[in-house]
Amino acid sequence: MNTTELIRRLRVQLKQLEQEVLQHDSQLAKGQRKLLSDTERFNHQLFEQTGAQLAPCVQQIDRKITQLEQLLKGKISSETIALSCEGIQDRFTALKRALSTTGLDLKSAEQQRAARFASANKRRQQAHAQSGFNWIAANVMHNSHQLYEELNKHLNWVKAFEQKIETLQLKLEHCHGADKIALQNEILLVHRRLGKCRQAISYIEDKIQAFERPYNSHNR
């Protein structure tokens, strides 16, 4: 086979593969591209490429074929030419394999993401339980909208507790004996609930700030 025929066959082979790659990339959903955005699917010696889309690999093979074409025009040893051809074929093989394994890569990435999410959720639940405020639903702790709702709920409870203490204090002025002791105990109990509620408000406010900090930093 002469050198012109070799280059022609390689370019025909690349053109056929390019059509498969373009079809492959066009069928990828936005979520799938995002899922594999940081995934390295090739040995660095073959391709400099990360993510689900494979079109960049076609461009890199095209450059290798052009380099081979330049080598063939010079006085280059047959061994060097053979190595160059072998490298191009290795890239063809790797790219074809990647076309057929995208589904497996997506499934693996989904499993890893689910595992990370489950682990992070478990850590949040543990931290929430250890905080002493586990009467607040754990799912509220990672939803900013629900956090604000929870904050308003606790602020309303504070007002209700303060009003109840004020009412009980007025009653206490007219109580005697056992009734007075019972009323004092009830006031003490409401004070404890009020204190716990104020602690929870501080806890929720801290969580809200933690949510808003990344957003505010991004929009500076």
Kindly list the characteristics that best describe this protein.
220 residues; mainly alpha
Describe this protein's structure.
It is a single chain. The protein has 220 residues and is an all-alpha fold. Helix content is 79%, strand content 0%. It has 6 helices and no strands.
Please render the helix and strand layout as text.
Elements: H1 3-26, H2 30-35, H3 55-73, H4 78-130, H5 144-172, H6 177-218
Amino- and carboxy-terminal Cα gap = 63 Å
How much helicity do the residues have? over 70%
| Anisotropy-based shape | rod-shaped
Strand percentage = under 5%
Helix and strand element order: HHHHHH
Question: Can I get a quick summary?
Answer:
The protein is mainly α. It is built from 6 helices and no strands.
